Amino acid sequence: MSKLNYNMRKIIVSILLTLCGLASFAQTADKMKKHSGETLDVKVIKVGEEVITYKYPGEDAEQTIGKYAVASITYGSSGRKEDITEKIDISSKDDWEKVQILTNASQVVGLKKGEEVKGKTAGLISYNTAGSADKKATKRLKQDAAELGAPFILMTSDKSDGYGVKQSMKKGIAYSYK
Q1: Using CA atoms, how far apart are residues 34 and 28, in angstroms rounded to an integer?
Q2: What does the pLDDT look like over 33-79, one tens digit per residue?
Q3: Which pTM does this prediction carry?
Q4: Mean pLDDT across 107-128
Q5: Which residues contact 36 (CB under 8 A, 6 or more apart)?
Q6: Which long-range contacts (CB under 8 A, 24 or more apart) does 59-63 make?
Q7: Distances from the Cα of 150 to the Cαs of 1, 88, 119, 153, in angstroms?
Q8: Cβ pair 67, 84 in contact under 8 A
Q9: If you ran DSSP here, which 8-state letter would residue 40 be given?
Q10: Number of helical H runs and strand E runs in the chain
């Protein structure tokens, strides 16, 4: 009978230690809040200049997400909250100046891919200088994205011709939070 009690105690102690371990992990998991409204329970490894590296609980594979997709991180071990980026609200074409042009594909990880957008200066004969042609094409590109409600553009092409005719053509993919 005493051997049975000893084995039961071992089992109970093992179960308690396992539950304590799970509870401590749940308390130390970091909460990553995305601008889309989704909250991820993860372990943040590194907050870099453009991306955040993290792991899901119980997994060894590292994941990355662009900082533009993340609103904040609350660190489970300390409770400290770190604001990552502010949400950019685009409600109409008039908000075109808020649209951000991105050049690195890692910056859009975690955002929703939308349509291709284009901006170019018009006409074969143009009175634009190279600088004004570039500004007009950028404005048109951003207006296209704003019309779609997209706060981000990943640039895919940026061409200017320099054969006397000052034209600029820009292309990109619009990205949004949802």
Answers
A1: 19
A2: 999 999 999 999 999 999 999 999 999 999 999 999 999 999 998 99
A3: 0.77
A4: 80
A5: 69, 112, 177, 178
A6: none
A7: 71, 9, 15, 8
A8: yes
A9: E
A10: 2, 10
Residue found by looking up tokens 């993860």 in the block: 42
Bridge-based pairing of strands 100-102 and 30-34 is: unpaired
**Tokens representing 9?**
């105690």
> CA-CA distance, 165 to 177, in Å (whole number)?
38
Residue type, 86: E
> Which residues partner with 63 through β-bridges?
54
Tokens of 47: 């907050």
The answer to whether 148 and 116 are in contact (CB under 8 A) is no
Kindly tell me the burial class for residue 75, based on how many C-beta atoms sit within 10 Å of its own C-beta (0-12, 13-18, 19 or more): middle
User: What six digits make up the tokens of 76?
Assistant: 């489970």
> Measured between alpha carbons, how far is 80 from 19 in angstroms, rounded to an integer?
25
Given a contact cutoff of 8 angstroms between Cβ atoms, the answer to whether 54 and 30 are in contact is: yes
